[in-house]
Every structure is written in C-alpha cells, then in structure tokens.
C-alpha cells in the first residue's frame, strides 16, 4: 500500500527527533563508557553467565533482524533510517555482552565461540507480516527488553557490581528510546486506521514471543534461570497494560474488534 | 457461585471458542493458561465479563489472574450478576 507524503514527512520528523537525542545525549562506546578496570569476577556466578549469554544470543540474530527490518521499511525514509540506527545500537549490545562474558571469565573465548556457532545455526524469521505489525511488535518487545535489562541493573546494584550496572543502564536506556520511537509510529497507524491497527495489536500480542525464543538452543531452560525474564504477571503489568494505555486501546476495544473479526469469518 | 462460574465460562468461551472443550471441563482450580488462553485472550474474556457483570476490574488484579477461581472472585467483588447476560447475545 502506498504511503502518503504526509505520513512519510511525519515519519521523517519522528526519526529526526529520535536521532537528534540519540546523537546528542545517548551515544556510548564499549571502551570509554564501561568501567572495565573495576571488573571483579568474584561478583558473578553461573546464573549471570546464563542470563548474559542468553541476551547476547538474542542479539546475535541481528543480521536476520536487519535484513527483514530494513527491507520491509525501505520505502519510508524515517522508518528505514531508524532500522539502520536501531541495528547499530543493538550491535553494541551484543558486543558488550560478549566482552563482559569473556573479560569476566564467565566464559572462555572458545566457550563463547561455540555458543555463537550454535545460535547461528538457525536463521530468525519474523512472525509479523506487515510493516505495521512489525512496528507494533517493536513497541511491545522493546519495552519488554527494557524491563528485563532494568531488572538486571537492579540485580547488579544489589551485588555492588558497578561494571554490570553500567552495562545494563546503557542498554536499557537504548531499549527505552527504541520503544518510544515505535510507540510514536504506532500512534500514527492508529490515527490513520484505528480498527485495523487495533486488530493488528491483538494479533501481534496473540502470537508474541521474544525473538529467538523458538530457535535458540535451550532457550526455555535458559529462561528458567532466576530473573532471566518477566513473569506473566509482570508482562501484563509492565508491558501490556501501559502500552495499551499509551495507545488508548481498552479491553472493550479488543473485545469489539475480535467480535467483528469473528463475524466476518 | 454457580452463576459467576457460568458467566466466567461463557466469557472464556466467547473469547476463545477454539478452547471450548477444555473450558467445558474446567474447575475453579484450573489455570487459565491450561485452557489454552494467552494474555490477550484473557483480556478479551475480561472485557466480556466486565460488560456482562457491569463491572470494571482493576488492572493490577487482572494481572494476577492465574486460575479460573481468580476470575470468579473478580466478578464476585466487582460485578453485578445477570445470568442471562450471555444468553442474550
């Protein structure tokens, strides 16, 4: 479906706002912004290794995410350029996890390389079909990753692990910014076609899972590591309810849309 | 209690007709996820329940729903029961 000039212009403005903040306030690098000299291996355990390795694994499918994300949005400058910037930022997340795992001694380089190889044996494919669905998925998924990393920040703080605290602070901040952009774009979609976008929200939530969850080796076992993810209650409380509220979508809207869909079927 | 249970069963069935068999066999102790309903289906069922029971469930309580019993309790605490509500649809 052709995208109007007005929409393209709005997306461009949204991207420029996002990018200006990213460039001026949020840039960081793994050499200067992580206090590696303070790294104390005694503060880590196998649970930390499993969690960090799992998050790193999710990020390792980045080439697949980029291929789908850029191509599906290529006709809309603002969204395609966001996808490129998003990929750059996410690439740093995988790097910092890998560096932490090896520098801390939680994994040897050889162990890490074997893990990476096992993850990349599978190729990630998107469950969403349209750009709108992909954007909606992003709004929920980025908020979820923000909360997961925020939880790791709290854990690190409790353990007085300043290095891991800084890692988690930086990447959680990135994820929150990504969520903000996606939310803005979903709002445009709702303004254009409220019922259609709401139907997509229901559809995306109905099949929601973390990327890589069905292809990463031992993902469910990894998720069973304490605090690795969110509980169902936390998912409802911190992800679903606030996001629906932001979009102005109520439970009643969901029921109405689903009833209409059932009648059409 | 039976009226609330019937209302909950009707709401769950309306939200997830594909799970009707398991809903028919459910007890108050059955977990919603074991019925085959995911979070969004639970929200949809809650919306039908709110409409039928003329209720508004607090989000924080809905987030804690695990078992059928939890939904029944929500109806009891926040709703006004009209057993015919779903029959009229």
Automatic annotation (TrEMBL), chain A:
Q: What does the UniProt keyword field contain? A: Fatty acid biosynthesis, Fatty acid metabolism, Iron, Lipid biosynthesis, Lipid metabolism, Metal-binding, Oxidoreductase
- Stated name of the protein: Acyl-[acyl-carrier-protein] desaturase
What is one GO cellular-component annotation here? cytosol
Listed under GO biological process in this entry are: fatty acid biosynthetic process
| Xref: Pfam families | FA_desaturase_2
Please give the superkingdom of this protein's source: Bacteria
The record's note on quaternary structure and interaction partners says: Homodimer.
Among the GO molecular function terms of this UniProt record, one is: metal ion binding
Keyword set includes Lipid biosynthesis: yes
Q: What class of enzyme is it?
A: oxidoreductase
Q: Which cofactor does it need?
A: Fe(2+)
Q: What family is it from?
A: Belongs to the fatty acid desaturase type 2 family.
Coiled-coil ranges (or none): none
Q: What is its EC number?
A: 1.14.19.2
């Amino acid at each position: 479906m052709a995208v109007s000039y007005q929409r393209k212009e709005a997306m461009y403005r949204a991207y420029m706002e996002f990018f200006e903040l990213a460039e001026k306030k949020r840039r960081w690098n793994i050499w200067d912004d992580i206090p590696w000299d303070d790294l104390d291996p005694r503060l880590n355990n196998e649970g930390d290794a499993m969690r960090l390795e799992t998050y790193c694994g999710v990020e390792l499918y980045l080439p697949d995410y980029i291929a789908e994300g850029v191509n599906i949005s290529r006709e809309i400058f603002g969204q395609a350029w966001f996808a490129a910037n998003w990929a750059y930022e996410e690439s740093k997340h995988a790097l910092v996890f890998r560096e932490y795992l090896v520098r801390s001694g939680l994994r040897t380089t050889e162990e890490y390389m074997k893990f990476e190889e096992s993850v990349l044996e599978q190729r990630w494919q998107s469950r969403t079909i349209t750009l709108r669905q992909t954007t909606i998925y992003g709004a929920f998924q980025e908020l979820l990753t923000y909360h997961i990393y925020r939880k790791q920040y709290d854990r690190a703080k409790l353990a007085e692990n300043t290095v891991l605290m800084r890692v988690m602070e930086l990447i959680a901040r990135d994820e929150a910014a990504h969520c903000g952009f996606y939310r803005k774009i979903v709002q445009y979609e709702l303004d254009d076609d409220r019922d259609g976008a709401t139907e997509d929200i229901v559809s995306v939530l109905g099949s929601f899972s973390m990327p890589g969850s069905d292809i990463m080796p031992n993902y469910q076992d990894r998720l069973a590591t304490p605090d690795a993810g969110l509980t169902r209650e936390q998912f409802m409380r911190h992800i679903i309810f606030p996001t629906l509220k932001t979009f102005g979508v109520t439970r009643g809207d969901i029921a109405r849309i689903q009833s209409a869909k059932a009648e059409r079927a | 209690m039976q009226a609330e249970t019937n209302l909950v069963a009707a709401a769950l069935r309306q939200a997830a007709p594909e799970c009707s068999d398991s809903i028919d066999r459910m007890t108050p102790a059955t977990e919603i996820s074991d019925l085959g309903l995911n979070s969004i289906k639970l929200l949809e069922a809650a919306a039908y329940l709110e409409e039928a029971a003329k209720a508004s469930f607090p989000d924080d309580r809905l987030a804690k729903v695990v078992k059928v019993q939890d939904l029944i309790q929500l109806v009891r605490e926040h709703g006004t029961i009209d057993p015919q509500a779903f029959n009229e649809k």
